[in-house]
Amino acid sequence: MIWNELPRPFLILAPMEGVTDVVFRQVVAHAGRPDLFFTEFTNVSSYASEKGRANALERLEIAPTDSPIIAQIWGQEPAHFAETVKALKSLGFSGVDLNFGCPDKNVNRAGGGAAMIRTPDLAVECFKNARENTDLPVSIKTRLGYSRPEEYQDWLPVLLRERPAALTVHLRTKKEMSKVPAHYELIPEIVKLRDEISPETKLIINGDIKDRTHALELHEKYPEVDGFMIGRGVFANPYCFTDHTPTREELMDLLYLHLDLYEKYSKTHQVSYEPLKHFFKIYINNFPGASDLRAKLMETHSIKDTRNVLK
């Protein structure tokens, strides 16, 4: 099982919608890959429908540099979880993760993501349907609660009693989003719950973790935590899984790699140009004229425009 093969502590790139796609994962792997990748989350109802399956499979595409990688899925229909997980092993995944923590309004309105915190019985049914239909390890990613941090006292035991292979806890609530600091002070209590209910479950902490150095500092303080997941930290430093401080030239090389890969996948995938602009701040920062260059790049409408501006 992949979760038993990882170093301790292990580092994971957090699944982020519109960010951790097959293109950006290859960019991060070039800079210095984490111990484990997750995909963007895929809607199980899309996979279960004839109309949506092609798009779902695009989101689940794996590059050679991705392995080992976990497929993250979400939804609210237990039967669709069962149908989706049956295909994941043949696609090359090492595990499957259920998203019970996404704060997106549309996802929550559909009953998925963090909305599962309010429907624990349904969450358990979805988990059981997933686990019973695959021999891949099934893990869960969630938040402390929906509205209040103390909800973890009731919510996390519900999940731990199902013995997931791993449990990632984003140390904020759905309501808090990322507007408050992560509640690191609750880690000892969460560790205690894990140890009492499901000691074999790997515990992963997510929220405000900047880079490898920061993760190792946290592990020294909380040695019972098995792994750490870095999300927004990759925007500050795409080399965050290493001890390397990139030069301006290295960051520009990563940008050109990102553009090249985007062009490659745009020939066969349904991609639009505008989301690509969100990545510019990763590569163009902290040097004289960076803000002006980013402003010009934000006015572009194609890869060709982008390359012309960079020249």
Most strands sheet: 8 strands, parallel, barrel
The number of strands is 8
Top CATH class of the largest domain: Alpha Beta
Shape: globular
Mean pLDDT: 93
Q: Which fold name is given in CATH as the topology of the largest domain?
A: TIM Barrel
Helix content: 40-55%
Strand content: 5-15%
CATH architecture title of the largest domain: Alpha-Beta Barrel
| DSSP summary: helix tally | 15
The main sheet orders its strands as: 1-2-3-4-5-6-7-8
- Terminus-to-terminus distance: 47 Å
In N-to-C order, the SSE pattern is: HEHEHHEHEHHEHEHEHEHHHHH
Overall number of structural domains? 2
Whole-angstrom Rg: 19 Å
The helix-and-strand class reads: alpha/beta
CATH homologous superfamily title of the largest domain: Aldolase class I
Low-confidence blocks of residues: none
Keywords:
311 residues, alpha/beta, TIM Barrel, 2 domains, 15 helices, globular
General description of the model:
The protein contains 15 helices and eight strands. The chain is of the alpha/beta class and 311 residues long. Helix 2 (22-32) runs antiparallel to helix 12 (248-266), helix 5 (78-88) runs parallel beside helix 7 (120-131) and helix 8 packs parallel to helix 9. Helices cover 41% and strands 14% of the residues. The chain has an eight-stranded parallel barrel with strand order 1-2-3-4-5-6-7-8, surrounded by five helices. The model has no long low-confidence stretch (mean pLDDT 93).
